[in-house]
Amino acid sequence: MEEPFYKNGLKFSCQRCSFCCGHSPGFVYLSKKDLLSLCNFFKICVKDFVKKYCRWAGYYEGKTVLALIEKKNYDCILWNKGCSAYSARPLQCSTYPFWSWIVQDRKTWDEIAKECPGMNVGQIWDAEFIEKTKSEYEKNVPITKEEVEELCAQNPSG
User: Fold this and answer.
1) Residue 157: CA count within 13 A, CB half-sphere
2) Staple 79 to which of 4, 53, 66, 75, CB 3.0 to 4.6 Å?
3) What is d(CA 93, CA 109) in angstroms, rounded to the nearest whole number?
4) CA nearest neighbour of 115 among 34, 43, 23
5) What Å distances lie between residue 121 and 13, 86, 90, 139, CA to CA?
6) What integer pLDDT is reported at residue 81 of this predicted model?
7) Which of 64, 34, 71 is nearest to 49 (CA)?
8) Which sign does the torsion angle of CA 142, 79, 104, 13 carry?
9) Which residues pair with 66 in a beta bridge?
10) Triad 71, 42, 83: Cα angle to 5°
11) Partner residues linked to 68 by β-bridges
12) Which of 97, 96, 71, 95 has its CA nearest to residue 84?
């Protein structure tokens, strides 16, 4: 098996520029764990959180899954000169930029780095960390509409 291009690690230090938090259309998909963590953080029930912060998005295999709303300028609904839920932010956010498709090869990494000033600077993350983070990203499955409805049915009053 060929060694990954990041076998000696990759540099990344978030510059808090918000590039990955908005500026262009996209989806921040929420897993069940993400949803419950955000509900706990905001001290709000699932039904109310979904109504206030979320939208339904088409996904693979015809599924409909939960995603955060974007503002008109494409910023994440949670972005306000910083993430308003940083300690409970979705796993998709906390694993950036070590997503499987970004670290698949040097060309893709460098292409994304043109837009992200935190890539290729600062702290070096070793290959073991990158592999672990990439794996977490890959396993993070968005919650479906049916699963959200089931959660709400389990707790109809809140």
Assistant:
1) 0
2) 75
3) 17
4) 23
5) 6, 22, 24, 27
6) 85
7) 34
8) negative
9) 56
10) 45
11) 54
12) 71
Are the C-beta atoms of residues 85 and 78 closer than 8 Å to each other? yes
- Residue-level pLDDT, tens digit, the chain, 158 residues: 789 999 999 999 998 888 888 878 889 999 999 999 999 999 999 999 999 999 999 998 899 999 999 999 999 999 988 899 999 999 999 999 999 999 999 999 999 999 999 999 999 999 999 999 999 999 999 999 999 999 988 876 65
Phi-psi region of 7 (alpha: psi -120 to 50; beta: other; left: phi over 0): alpha
The per-residue pLDDT for 26 is 85
DSSP assignment of 93-147, as one string?
HHTTT--TTTSS-HHHHHHHHTT-TTEEEEEEEPHHHHHHHHHHHHH-PPPBHHH
Q: Which residue has the tokens 């389990």?
A: 154
Structure tokens at 5: 């291009």
CB 121 within 8 A of CB 13: yes
**Backbone Cα Rg of the chain:** 17
Task: Report yes or no on whether pTM surpasses 0.90.
Answer: no
